[in-house]
Design goal:
Number of strands: 2
Oligomer: single chain
Strand content: 5-15%
Distance between the termini: 66 Å
Structural class: mainly alpha
């Protein structure tokens, strides 16, 4: 596919240039993917912390404010 007039020295430079360009793009993609993963983990951690802050624990000594009946077994409700 290549013309006979291209010297191997020139071809070597072209291939090296393309290879370097591909490595730079691959490295950039890996950095981007790792940043997305780190962001996803931070959001997941933040969601867990918020869920733990916004939970209500009801045990057998608590009573319903409407009917005044005891609620019964221990219950955890995440808001």
């Amino acid at each position: 596919m290549l013309p006979d007039s291209i010297a191997l020295k020139d071809l070597k430079e072209i291939v090296q240039s393309m290879s370097n360009h591909m490595l730079v793009e691959k490295h950039g993609s890996q950095i981007f993917r790792n940043l997305l993963l780190a962001q996803r983990l931070q959001v997941h951690d933040q969601r867990i912390r918020l869920q733990q802050l916004n939970k209500v624990v009801v045990d057998e000594n608590d009573a319903c404010k409407v009917c005044c009946k005891k609620i019964g077994k221990r219950l955890v409700i995440a808001l």
